[in-house]
Amino acid sequence: MAESYDSQETHGPYDNFQVGDFILESGAKIRDLNLAYATFGTLNADKSNAILFPSWYSGTTKILEHAYIGSGRSLDPERYFIILVNQIGNGLSSSPSNSPAPFHQIRFPQPSIGDDVRAQHRLITERFGIERLALVLGGSMGAQQTWEWAVRFPDAVARAAPIAGTARTTPHNQLLVDTFIEAITSDQAYGDGWFDEGAVHRGLRRHARLFAAAGFTPRLFNEALWRDLGFTTVDDFVTGFVENHFLPQGPNDLLTLLRKWRGGDVGPHGGGDLARALARIKARLSIIAIEEDGFFPVADIEAEQRFVPHSRLVRIASAWGHLALFGLDPAYNRAVDAALSELLAAPAPQEAP
Amino acid sequence: MAESYDSQETHGPYDNFQVGDFILESGAKIRDLNLAYATFGTLNADKSNAILFPSWYSGTTKILEHAYIGSGRSLDPERYFIILVNQIGNGLSSSPSNSPAPFHQIRFPQPSIGDDVRAQHRLITERFGIERLALVLGGSMGAQQTWEWAVRFPDAVARAAPIAGTARTTPHNQLLVDTFIEAITSDQAYGDGWFDEGAVHRGLRRHARLFAAAGFTPRLFNEALWRDLGFTTVDDFVTGFVENHFLPQGPNDLLTLLRKWRGGDVGPHGGGDLARALARIKARLSIIAIEEDGFFPVADIEAEQRFVPHSRLVRIASAWGHLALFGLDPAYNRAVDAALSELLAAPAPQEAP
């Protein structure tokens, strides 16, 4: 199942960047690390039009393409060279499910958000010779990677737009992530992590329902907005949309992503001090929060934004909450396009008159 | 474990009202239905000072006593005759865990919120000869019972204060409740519902963590407000406070309550039409919502309040969210006391000049 799900047919076309053996922040090593990515548009002569957009939890870059890229959109391939990159562990880039024995499944080393960003930096510098990105953006776990980019490589990021995600995972968010992890690992079929293909569907279904109940808005259910997607009941929607999204994915891939999510923190770049870490940022930031987002409440995002120079907080209202990231809500799409276009039109702080 | 937990020592002193054989709305029968209750204060001569306060999910009346009753409080035993009643299935009133075979555990018939209110009506009329309550109030599932009282027995309720709960469980809330049910039943030790005493602790712990992650506020965790209770880490708090609260309780008792919660709906009194059902209410209502309550968002409560004659919406801010019900937050306690005192001082609509 994982093989057909993680195919070029489903998620392609995409390219692969062979990072090679890669030592993680933890000291562990991923052999032959591969980053799967897709590009749109053309890199200009001075390499000043590059945009990097890493994937979020449980998604691949295909959904980013559908939801955010297009002629006339803010991420217009006629103007920009857009690199969508699959984060480590998502089933397309090196992951528990697609690595060779013995370092596969639960023996796949646990990467951090910082490891993703270090590998992505190799991709943009070594493959494309890009030293500075016009924009880094991402939603949810993609926002975590965006934050890490802006803090870790301040000179390599002109602008950044973390959407619906934080620079340091909050204790409440960690508790939520723990419930997702436990939903999968508590499945008896998951056992010690060496399971039969497709066997962990109970755990994945349980995880999917927690995800929907905690992250989507009450309004989505109470006003039956899921009808817009053609479903007939709450259960029909949760099974047909949410369970169906997670069921084809590798349980250990999701667990790797969840543990990465849980540990997201730029603090170490400031000696453990979040404010000091965020003060390293040289980019111009539009920090985007989705109102009624159950995973990343506006208050949590606002609490970080206060420490960021050259930043503004953009609130976007959507009845879909966190799920708006998927591009399902035209009002969200318009609002996020407006925010990104404005950011792209603004000079980077270093260039400001 | 259940026996010592559900003891007079832990929860008493309380009295028992033997309802006798009781036919539920579903047609099923509970043999020798018992309601455990506790009273405070003295019923006056014209029986006009009676207050009924049913218990919420997973609690007994002891916590209501500690959190809401006292000299100088709005629920002052020197002025009022206060009846705290344990809802069916909570371990003190008739429940899966304390019923004799063969109708115990999963053979205990599933009651509805309406059944509770019918049985409580028997209690106040038959035991105390009370025809009209000065006030009915309750939090969470207690609010469900309060709503049911006001709609089902409009002439028996002068005032009502549903706190942090709805008249009809919303689809989003049902999805949340489903995740709680599944957290318990998915424990292998739960099996077919005939389990060894204490064996289902994994499921109860899982349920406790979902409950905390979904219902308490992000602020409670992110600002480490749990320190006020003497805990040292998030995990210490979740284990020592939340798991510890649920672990002694009967898994089938909690499931009975959760299914009752899930089905809460006054709609049938209006032929299925919620607005018509709520229009039956003759009492004066203060409908209290706790801001940042993850279970019962203010918007859901407000949506119902609009249909209720003689009502006002009272919003109470608390960093504890739904957990404020427990009386842990002095600011919540003051605000709820003020709202209840004001309501008790106001004439019932039928008596208004």
Overview of the molecule:
Chains A, B: Residues 69-326 form the AB hydrolase-1 domain. Chains A, B: Keywords: Transferase. Chains A, B: One of its GO terms (molecular function) is acyltransferase activity, transferring groups other than amino-acyl groups. In chain A, strand 5, helix 5 and strand 6 (159-163) form a beta-alpha-beta unit. An 8-stranded mixed beta sheet of chain A has the order 1-2-4-3-5-6-7-8, sandwiched between helices. Helix content of chain A is 37%, strand content 15%. Chain A has 2 domains: 2-170 and 264-351, Alpha/Beta hydrolase fold, catalytic domain (Rossmann fold), CATH 3.40.50; 174-258, Rna Polymerase Sigma Factor, Chain: A. Chain A has 353 residues and is α/β, with parallel strands linked by helices. Chain A is built from 13 helices and 8 strands. The mean pLDDT of chain A is 95. Chain A has helices at 2-5, 8-11, 61-68, 113-127, 141-152, 171-185, 201-215, 218-222, 234-246, 251-262, 274-278, 298-305, 330-345; strands spanning 15-23, 29-40, 50-54, 81-85, 135-139, 159-163, 284-290, 311-316.
How far is the N terminus from the C terminus of chain A?
55 Å
Work out the radius of gyration of chain A.
19 Å
Mean pLDDT of chain A: 95
Number of helices of chain A: 13
Alpha-beta classification of chain A: alpha/beta
What is the spatial order of strands in the main beta sheet of chain A? 1-2-4-3-5-6-7-8
| Main pleated-sheet profile of chain A | 8 strands, mixed
- Percent helix range of chain A: 25-40%
Shape of chain A: globular
CATH architecture of the largest domain in chain A: 3-Layer(aba) Sandwich
Q: What fold name stands as the CATH topology of the largest domain in chain A?
A: Rossmann fold
Poorly predicted runs of 5 or more residues of chain A? none
Chain pair forming the biggest interface = A-B, 32 and 32 residues
Please tell me the total number of domains of chain A. Answer: 2
- Total strands of chain A: the figure is 8
